[in-house]
Structure prediction request, 631 residues.
Amino acid sequence: MKKTFGFMMAVVLIAALFVLPAAAADKVGFIVGSREHVFYTLIEKGINAAAKDLGIDAVVLDGNLDGNVTSDHINNLVAEGCKAVALSCNDPGGTTPAMEAADREGVPVFTFDCTSTQTNVVKSFVGTDNVEGGRLGGRETVRLASAGAKVGIINYDEPQSCLDRRAGWEEIVKASDKNLKIIEVGNYVGDASKAEQLMTDALTQNPDLEVVFTVGDPAAAGALAAIKAAGASTKIIGFDGNPEAKAAMLDAENGRFWVSEISQNPDAIGRQITEQIAKYLGTGKVDSEVIMISPYIITKENAAD
Amino acid sequence: MSKIKIWLEKNMIILFLVILCVGFGLSNDTFRTSKNLFNLTSQMAINALLSAGLTYVIILGGIDISVGSVAALAGVISCIVGLKFPNMSTLGGIVIIIASAVVVGGLCGLFNGVVITQFNVVPMITTLATMTMARGLTYIVTGGTAVFGLPTVFSFLGAGRLIKNGTSPNGIIPVVTLFTIAVVFMMHVLLSKTVFGRHVYASGSNANVAHLSGISVKKVTLVSHVLCGIMAALGGVLVASKLQNGQPGACDGYEMYAIASTVLGGTSLAGGSGSVARAMFGVAIIAVINNGMNLLHISSYWQKVVIGTIILLAVILDMAQKKKKA
Prediction:
């Protein structure tokens, strides 16, 4: 009887080893800026791919570019038992209190794309070097423009990333020995149709505008429509590296105008932030507190890659 | 003398438009050029279509804040349909654009009309829901990315120009201007010269009296919302045609400019009065302010402040005149 009981207990224990679930994967919360922007959907793809490779259970939420929504998500993710939280900190003022509260609860906080300088709880930030991206745009502008030419910029005055791009572009263009004249085309507020109107007005006043740099691809799409309608020959340098930009550069007609693109690497941002979190959860350390992913130039020659 | 005074009081909006044009014309040489004036008409087109449709529902005492989202949905749908026909002709492109607008806009307008008339949900809430749903659908069908790769002929209606010559090899008169004039004219005639139009005014003035007079207020409301949806969708497909791609974030906030233009044109938010033709003066004022300020390189922030101030002044003036008449 004792032997039978002992045998049964042994069977149950061995079976339990197989039946009981393996140690659950670390659950990590990610809050992307907005799923309505292709840039963030590509970051999300990078996060999911890296999480799968690293055995992380990634919970990805949409912050709607709203500090209040993002703060609520942070609190919910902490309550859900996430081992770490990573967010695109588009509203540093609004989300910093929730980030600090998560840190006090023992949940490490990471940021990507945008970060907060108002707190020191961020373990690591991964983002694009937008100033450097602007500089690349500036170098392309100088390369494409003739000496003394008019060059324009379509800007977006609200996001810090776009202000950084503008600053980098101006730094190079103003320092150029080509003596370029900068034309302010205007603030397109993220609306391609508005960019088209601004560019139409700018071309009416400056039909000899040689190059226009745009801080985002929707602005480049609007500028392209205006340039074609006006019969102008202005060259466009876009920013983002979205699929429509590559398609335009490869197109026989549109490629005559949209000749250069400063591309970000959202997939690499998503992968890198996930890798840093995995490293921190494993060793308590990160590679660096700030990791900048350099943007790069796309032209017709490498657009198909 | 008193006749002039009466005319001026009735047509303050026209006088204001003339003053704006003279002011910008004197301060900027480019503003006066024929090229800029033709550009101005094409820049008015989208808002003109949205406002023409909104005039109907505002005269009914309602509102439609879904027009911007419906425009975006129709724009991306027209591009998705257009991609299925890579070898389309110019006429084929026009047919795809207009058919997409009629179907998408008609369905959205029908939805608004049915909810308002059959479930008695207030227009503000109904169209707020449609605004959110239409924008969500736009992102679902596009996956958040622009719809691109359309043939050049697709852009004929939105970006094409007629009468080409040596100085204007791309043409002078924007096709979108002619198209908008034709559609707005039809909307104006429908409202001011037909029995249906009179029913719209009667239903907006006093729905109970209109009902007792034998007018089907529900039917009038339903048709007006369908028309408003189609006009919004036409605006959206023209944006897509102009840009030769469908942007899911397009036309965001355009409902505010359209409502502002309609109110500036003298359409009463209380319902019962207004006209499509006069709404076009409101459209022109907003377009002239934007265009003039762009040419003068005035910050977009100040443009918002100026437009907001003008709308407020126009409404205060309108209320003062009504009070005087009463």
